[in-house]
């Protein structure tokens, strides 16, 4: 049975050799990991950056942990080298040497100063001590904890620095392009809401990039694992830029289409004015040629629409496209309505002339029928035709009287022609 000591039963030569092999492999792994941490781009950036906020606080703790990590590794290395040296003295170590090896490999045989322990770790273990006596396993446990803490911090910072600033730069460059386009179509701060939004977005992107550089850990979301950069503000800025871009493109479309739309507006209002002029002239003719008192009045040109058209042309001339757009939308609809109103007015005014023309046409049609039937010399038909013709070709024309005389002529033609054409119903053939 092996003799027991403070570290437990004294290890055998085989136990010592196996423990040294295991600890040697762990030492190589730790050393490799520490060098990887030392060369990590995130650590180098954290050491050289002017940090703020959460990152400054966490890096202060992590930097102290990295320092302690190297100090403990040196102690670990020293203890391992002492054990290897003692084991190498002879092939078959004495019981005293095995006891010493057991103390080095399993006991609290490694001494570290209290200054090598970070403040956070000392707070967990009670008041600070000048020295501590630890086992190699305890050293390893501490180093693993500090290493995980350091790697989490530097990897998170590096991930944010790799993901966000470059993307924000691209978005900022696109924002400047949209800004240039916006200014070309009059979308400027104080002149258009989107101009104000764009300036706010530019300022926000500048502040956002500065914060991601100085405080990257403020943009790290550890849950759910393995964690990821928080891109919510960046994505929101991208959506806002897209909304502004659509508004600017809408204004740009107005600019590109403005001349065509203004030309059409001029044409529609011009046709409306000409139609109203024609209606006024027709009304004068109707009043002079038709005995009627219910001829509707004709309004003048739509001066308000012409004033708004002049304002639209001024907006186009001064490149105020964002103000031109809503004005054109309403003006086009009102101009079309004005043209329809003018046409309806012309139709209403000329209705009596249309009635007179219809009566004249009907009278001529029945006269042609009378000639075909050989009744052109009938005295009654001649008398009634002359009466209707005098009324229809006199000025002012009594439409009501003319209508009655034309009907009387139709009736006379029907009565006289009935014996000759039994199928005739009084309509011209």
UniProtKB/TrEMBL annotation:
Residues 241-282 form a coiled coil. The keyword Coiled coil applies. Keywords: Coiled coil. This is DUF349 domain-containing protein. It comes from Actinacidiphila polyblastidii. The lineage of its organism: Bacteria, Bacillati, Actinomycetota, Actinomycetes, Kitasatosporales.
């Amino acid at each position: 049975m092996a003799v027991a000591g403070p570290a437990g039963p004294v290890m055998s030569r085989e136990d010592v050799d196996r423990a040294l092999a295991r600890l040697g492999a762990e030492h190589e792994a730790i050393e490799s990991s520490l060098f990887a941490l030392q060369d990590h781009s995130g650590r180098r950036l954290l050491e050289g950056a002017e940090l703020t906020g959460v990152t400054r606080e966490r890096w202060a703790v992590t930097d102290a942990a990295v320092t302690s990590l190297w100090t403990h590794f040196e102690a670990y290395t020293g203890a391992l080298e002492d054990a290897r040296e003692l084991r190498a003295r002879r092939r078959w170590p004495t019981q005293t040497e095995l006891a010493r090896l057991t103390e080095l490999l399993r006991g609290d045989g490694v001494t570290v100063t209290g200054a090598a322990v970070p403040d956070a770790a000392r707070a967990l273990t009670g008041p600070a001590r000048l020295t501590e006596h630890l086992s190699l396993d305890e050293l390893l446990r501490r180093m693993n904890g500090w290493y995980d803490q350091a790697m989490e911090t530097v990897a998170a910072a590096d991930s944010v620095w790799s993901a966000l600033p470059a993307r924000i730069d691209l978005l900022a460059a696109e924002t400047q392009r949209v800004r240039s386009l916006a200014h070309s179509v009059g979308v400027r701060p104080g002149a258009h809401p989107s101009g104000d939004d764009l300036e706010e977005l530019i300022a926000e992107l500048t502040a956002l990039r500065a914060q991601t550089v100085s405080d990257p850990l403020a943009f790290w979301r550890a849950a759910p694992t393995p964690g990821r950069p928080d891109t919510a503000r960046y994505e929101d800025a991208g959506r806002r830029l897209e909304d502004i871009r659509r508004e600017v493109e809408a204004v740009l479309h107005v600019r590109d289409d403005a001349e065509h739309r203004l030309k059409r507006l001029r044409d529609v209002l011009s046709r409306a004015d000409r139609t109203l002029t024609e209606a006024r002239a027709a009304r004068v003719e109707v009043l002079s040629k038709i005995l009627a008192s219910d001829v509707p009045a004709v309004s003048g040109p739509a001066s308000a629409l012409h004033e708004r058209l002049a304002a639209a042309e001024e907006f186009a001339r001064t490149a105020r496209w964002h103000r031109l757009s809503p004005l054109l939308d309403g003006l086009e609809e009102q101009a079309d309505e004005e043209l329809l109103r003018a046409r309806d007015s012309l139709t209403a005014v000329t209705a009596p002339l249309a009635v007179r023309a219809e009566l004249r046409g009907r009278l001529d049609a029945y006269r042609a029928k009378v000639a075909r039937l050989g009744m052109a010399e009938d005295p009654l038909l001649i008398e009634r035709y002359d009466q209707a013709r005098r009324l229809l070709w006199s000025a002012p024309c009594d439409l009501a009287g003319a209508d009655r005389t034309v009907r009387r002529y139709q009736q006379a033609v029907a009565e006289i022609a009935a014996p000759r054409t039994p199928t005739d119903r009084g309509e011209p053939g």
